[in-house]
């Protein structure tokens, strides 16, 4: 019997998977922002990681031993650390500034990936890529606007998040050659689950019964989103998927308007468009170079 997914090409499956992943992760971010007014960020980070870790263990339990087998334990743990740090910085950012603005700033992540790929994966770095990175950083500066009355230091947190996610992305790309999807998903959470479990008792706030459904959503949405990201990277080359990650700006802006009464100003839109343009420029250059 032919699986329904076999009717579609790997390219189609990969693109749909990454868009769905961005939707689920953006929904998780909106849920975290909603709860951040009543709970410490570390509480929410702990829920996000421990919840995902437990969910994955339950799913892979029948094949736990083979799933945990890895020849790249050190890199898996480093990758998990990158994601943990990126998550903390990003959560701290959008809990203090508009969700749409924080997400737009985070989109300089693909530009950092370009630089990291040059240093750690040996990929080429020409003047066009350098130009794209510089233009993208200009877009972030337009949103942040340092030196003006609208500037807030909290706007710097998403940049830290972008650096962490870039490290996670590069490590995931490297590990996709030898690791399984479920192994990578499990090790994605391990550092965050362990470290946050050690720290969270000092910041713990007991959740109300009414908030339990939102707390459960953080773990479920985060797990589905991460699984779909890893799945898409196993299906399609990362450079093809990169442009579709900008859907997060659309989702975050819509959620900000609907649930938090956040309406970004014109400069945020301009900065976001510049960042998107810079990322698409680098992607187009790479695509053209690979396909003649």
Which H/E pattern describes the elements? Answer: HHHHHHHHHHHHH
- Residues in helix, %: over 70%
Shape call: globular
> What fraction of residues sit in β-strands?
under 5%
| Number of helical elements | 13
Low-confidence stretches: none
Helix and strand composition category: mainly alpha
User: How large, in whole angstroms, is the Cα Rg?
Assistant: 19 Å
Tally the beta strands: 0
Assembly state (oligomeric): single chain
Distance between the termini: 39 Å
Let me know the average pLDDT. Answer: 86
Major sheet summary line:
none
Integer tally of domains:
1
Task: Write the SSE topology.
Layout: H1 10-35, H2 41-60, H3 64-68, H4 73-94, H5 99-106, H6 109-120, H7 127-144, H8 157-175, H9 181-199, H10 212-235, H11 238-241, H12 247-260, H13 266-290
Helix pairs in contact: 1-10, 1-12, 2-4, 2-9, 2-10, 4-8, 4-9, 5-8, 5-12, 5-13, 6-7, 6-8, 7-13, 9-10
Description:
This protein has helices at residues 10-35, 41-60, 64-68, 73-94, 99-106, 109-120, 127-144, 157-175, 181-199, 212-235, 238-241, 247-260, 266-290. By secondary structure, the chain is mainly alpha-helical. It has one domain.
Characteristic terms for this protein:
292 residues; mainly alpha
């Amino acid at each position: 019997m032919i699986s329904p997914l076999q009717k579609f090409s790997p390219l189609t499956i990969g693109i749909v998977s990454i868009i769905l992943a961005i939707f689920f992760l953006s929904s998780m971010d909106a849920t975290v922002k909603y709860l951040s007014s009543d709970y410490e960020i570390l509480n929410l980070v702990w829920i996000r990681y421990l919840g995902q870790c437990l969910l994955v263990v339950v799913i892979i339990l029948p094949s736990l031993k083979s799933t945990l087998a890895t020849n790249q334990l050190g890199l898996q743990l480093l990758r998990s650390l990158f994601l943990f740090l990126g998550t903390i910085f990003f959560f701290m950012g959008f809990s203090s500034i508009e969700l749409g603005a924080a997400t737009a700033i985070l989109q300089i992540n693909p530009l950092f990936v370009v630089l990291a790929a040059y240093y750690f994966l040996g990929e080429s770095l020409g003047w066009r890529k350098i130009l794209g990175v510089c233009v993208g950083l200009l877009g972030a500066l337009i949103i942040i606007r340092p030196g003006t009355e609208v500037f807030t230091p909290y706007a710097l947190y998403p940049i830290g998040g972008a650096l962490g996610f870039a490290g996670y992305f590069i490590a995931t790309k490297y590990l996709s050659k030898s690791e399984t999807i479920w192994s990578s998903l499990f090790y994605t959470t391990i550092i965050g689950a362990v470290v946050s479990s050690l720290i969270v008792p000092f910041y713990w706030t007991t959740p109300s019964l009414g908030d339990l459904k939102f707390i459960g959503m953080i773990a479920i949405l985060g797990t589905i989103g991460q699984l779909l990201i890893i799945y898409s990277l196993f299906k399609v080359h990362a450079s093809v998927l990169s442009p579709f990650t900008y859907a997060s700006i659309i989702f975050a802006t819509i959620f900000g308007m609907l649930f938090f009464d956040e309406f970004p100003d014109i400069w945020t839109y301009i900065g976001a468009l510049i960042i998107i343009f810079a990322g698409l420029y680098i992607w187009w250059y790479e695509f053209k170079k690979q396909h003649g």
